């Protein structure tokens, strides 16, 4: 939820100016957020647009493999692009401190912000769970890990995210002119204290639980289980240490991006809701929360730029995995799998007999 400070000429305002039920005289100076937002959002727009357009080109034209993981990544690209396309409007607003684009576009823009943030978290979680099933339970999960099931999951994610983001965005009023000396129209920052107490506090509880806590736990648990599985000696087969290193790198990058982008904003959002509902009182608490909020928000928005890194590592691992499968063809004994991959089809049987003879000779001589 965006800060409720109105963008008038005097950026130092009291909390009482934004709430009819609050008699506090805590002085706030969060005017730094306007140049911060306009700068960061401009950078995210350029970088996010280029990287996500390149990603969607790769998925549709260059990446030959189509499976459930690429289905999740394609939906994540769509979520990022929808949000990135609204950033120029936000940049214009934070530079001019006026919203001339109408109430409906303001509400849609706010809705897309929450759609992108929590959609990104859920789709990243889907990728993490899918990787967990593929590595930890490769055989038992075959019937579950299908394109059809992946599409069903994606539809469910979109329904869940839109059911939370659309009502939140459409509760925002873009035409409030209270304390407006410059006759400007506001957007992104007009949630009243009454709305926070009656509706938004409940929304925060829902999105923090379903949109943040559960995905965070799933990402961490799945990553730990995969790392534990890769530590087993038998996990190093036809892929070798090189493949294991790539998978470990992919998991670490995925988890770091998730934690870096989403933990600061969602943790601060809880305290922000407590301050806005007057559950948490005190000038120091208000000052800290309102100062951290714009910084955490900018970090969260940057996920549009970091998601393509996940695409790169995941796609690279998928392609390498499929190449190995096509070389092996069938599953053989681990002792002879290296020989079966390196020999041509005409010499396979001969090599296999020689290897077996050597193994049996060594065993008999012990």
TrEMBL record:
Its main location: membrane. GO terms for molecular function: G protein-coupled receptor activity. The keyword Metal-binding does not apply. GO terms for biological process: adaptive immune response. InterPro entries: GPCR_Rhodpsn, GPCR_Rhodpsn_7TM. Pfam families: 7tm_1. Keywords: Adaptive immunity, Disulfide bond, G-protein coupled receptor, Glycoprotein, Immunity, Membrane, Receptor, Transducer, Transmembrane, Transmembrane helix. It is found in: Membrane. The chain crosses the membrane at residues 40-60, 72-93, 113-133, 153-172, 203-227, 247-272, 292-314. Belongs to the G-protein coupled receptor 1 family. It is a multi-pass membrane protein. Residues 51-311 form the G-protein coupled receptors family 1 profile domain. It comes from the Eukaryota. Residues 1-24 are annotated as: Disordered. The keyword Transmembrane applies. This is G-protein coupled receptors family 1 profile domain-containing protein. GO terms for cellular component: membrane.
């Amino acid at each position: 939820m965006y800060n409720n400070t109105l963008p008038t000429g005097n950026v130092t305002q009291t909390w009482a100016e934004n709430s009819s039920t609050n008699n506090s005289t805590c002085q706030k100076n969060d005017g730094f957020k306007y140049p911060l937002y306009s700068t960061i959002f401009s950078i995210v727009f350029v970088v996010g647009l280029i990287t996500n357009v390149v990603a969607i080109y790769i998925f549709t034209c260059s990446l030959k493999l189509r499976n459930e993981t690429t289905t999740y990544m394609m939906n994540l690209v769509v979520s990022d692009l929808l949000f990135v396309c609204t950033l120029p409007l936000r940049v214009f607003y934070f530079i001019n401190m006026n919203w001339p684009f109408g109430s409906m576009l303001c509400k849609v823009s706010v809705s897309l912000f929450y759609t992108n943030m929590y959609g990104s978290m859920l789709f990243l979680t889907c990728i993490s769970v899918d990787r967990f099933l593929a590595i930890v339970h490769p055989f038992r999960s075959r019937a579950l890990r299908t394109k059809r099931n992946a599409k069903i999951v994606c539809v469910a994610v979109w329904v869940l995210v839109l059911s939370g983001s659309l009502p939140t965005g459409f509760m925002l009023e873009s035409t409030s002119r209270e304390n407006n000396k410059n006759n400007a129209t506001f957007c992104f920052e007009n949630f009243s204290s009454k709305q926070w107490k009656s509706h938004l506090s409940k929304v925060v509880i829902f999105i923090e639980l379903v949109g943040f806590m559960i995905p965070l736990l799933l990402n961490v648990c799945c990553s730990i289980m995969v790392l534990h599985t890769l530590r087993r000696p038998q996990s190093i087969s036809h892929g070798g240490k090189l493949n294991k290193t790539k998978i470990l790198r992919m998991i670490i990058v995925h988890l770091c991006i998730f934690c870096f982008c989403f933990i600061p904003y969602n943790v601060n959002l809880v305290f922000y809701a407590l301050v806005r509902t007057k559950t948490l009182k005190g000038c120091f608490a208000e000052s800290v929360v309102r100062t951290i909020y714009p910084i955490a928000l900018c970090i969260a928005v940057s996920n549009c730029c970091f998601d393509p890194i996940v695409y790169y590592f995941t796609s690279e691992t998928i392609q390498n995995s499929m190449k190995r499968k096509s070389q092996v063809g069938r599953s053989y004994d681990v002792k002879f799998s290296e020989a079966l991959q390196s020999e041509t089809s005409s010499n396979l049987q001969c090599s296999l007999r020689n290897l077996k003879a050597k193994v049996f000779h060594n065993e008999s001589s012990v």
